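Inputs:
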Amino acid sequence: MFRPLPDSSEGPTVTVFVEGQPVEAYVGETAASVLLRHLGTARTTSISESPRAPFCMMGCCFDCLAEIDGKGSTQSCLEPVRDGMTIARQMSARKVVAR
Amino acid sequence: MAQPDHIVIGAGTVGVSLAYGLQKRGQSVCVVDGGASDFRAARANFGLVWVQGKGGNLPAYARWTAESAALWPRFRDALEQCSGIGLDYQKPGGLVFSLSEQALIDRRAVLEEIGGGALPEGVEMLDRDALQARLPDAPLGPEVAGASYGASDGHVNPLKLLAALQQGFLELGGEILWDWPVQTLRTTDDGYELTGPDGETLRAPNVIVAAGLATPGIVAPLGVDLPLRPQRGQLLVTERMAPMLPMPCSGLRQTADGTVMIGTTHEDVGLDTGTTQASGTMVAERALRILPALSGARIVRQWSGLRVLSPDGGPLYTQPEAYPGLWTVSCHSGVTLAAIHAERLAEQILAGALTGDTRHFSKDRFHVPTLA
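Outputs:
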C-alpha cells in the first residue's frame, strides 16, 4: 500500500530487521515508515487489541508504538533507522516480565 | 428550588457518599461544590479500600474501617446499579512488602498490637516463598523478605467511584450546584444560611461540611476549631501492561486498565500540589527493589494530591453542641470509608447524633486537659 517517494529512495541504505526478516531501509527514514511499507501496522491496543498503524508520523498520536531494538512502547515515527536495528510490532499489552 | 432537608458542602468522595446515603433514605439533599482551583483529594486518590494496619492508635478506627470494607461489596452493587457506572472494584486481599527480615518482624509486631496480641482476623504473614507463590507473574527483587497479607483489602478506580456517587445521587433526585464556593455560613432561626457566589443564598435545617482542607475555614467563623492539615503524596503511573499484580499492594497497584500506580510520599509542604523529581525517583527506586521488572516500564504520569489529615490520622467527625444540625466530616480514607459513610454515618446524621465508634472521632480526643 505504501511506497517511498522517488526522491527519498535515492541515496545510501542500511539493513534493518523487521520481525526477524532483513530488509533494506533508506537512511533518514524512520522505523515507522519501514513498518508501514512492510507490515502496514505497528501494534494492537493494550485492552481491546484492535490494530493500529502509524498515523501522524510526528510524535503526537502514539499509534506507532512498537518494539525497537527490544524496547517496547517506543514511538517508531521518532526513531531514524540504524544499521542492524530490530523492529517488531507490539501486540496487546506490554509484558515487562519475561515468561 | 424548594428548601432541601440537608445541604452538603463538598462534592468530593466524602461529601457525595453522605449525600447519596441521605438521598437514598428519602431526604432531599443539595450539594454545593467549590471552585475549579480548589484542592481535590478525591481526584488524586490511589484507590485502595484498605484495612490492614489502620487504627493502631485508635481502635475505633480499625473497627470502623473493617466494617466499611465489609459493607463495600453490597455498596458497590447498589451504586453500580443506580449510577450505571462500573467501579472496577475488586477484593482479592492486599499486601504490604517488607524489604528485610527485620522489617518483616517489625511488621508482624505492628499488626499484632492492633490485633491485641495476635494477628487481626484475615491477616497473615507470608515469607518470601509464600509471597512469590501468590505473585507468579511478578518476580520479586532479592531484598524482599516477605509481606503481610490482609484478606479484607481491595481496590477500586477512585475516579469512577466519584463519578458513580455523583451520578447515583443525581439519579435519586439530588441536586449538585457546581462552582458554588461557600463564602459564609451563618445560623438562622430554624437552621443555616449559606452565601455563595454573587451573593446567592441557600437555606436548610441541616448542613454537613465535607469540604476537605477547606472545612476548617468554613466553620471557623462559628467558633468551631478543627485540627486538619494537608500532607502531600506523589504518585507515578506507568503505561498499560499485561496483568502482573493480582492484588493491590501498599504503594503499588495495577489497575483494571493495566497501568501500575506507584506511590507514595508523605510530605509536609503546606498547600503545594507540585511534583518533584526527587520524590519521583524515590518512589520509583523503592518499587524497583520490590519488582525489578518495572525497570522496563514507561512512566506516563506523575501527580500529587493533598491528604486531609487529623493529628492522629483518624477520621474527624463533629456535631458541635451549640449548633444542632451542623456536622463536619473529614477523613483521609474517603474511598475506604465511602460505604460506611453512605450507610452508618448517614443513618447517624439522620438520627441526630454520633453514636458507637463514631463518638471516638470527635475533636475531643485531641483536647489536652490543662493542669490545675
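Remarks. The mean pLDDT of chain B is 95. Chain B touches chain A at residues 137-139, 239-244, 257-258, 293-298 (CB under 8 Å).
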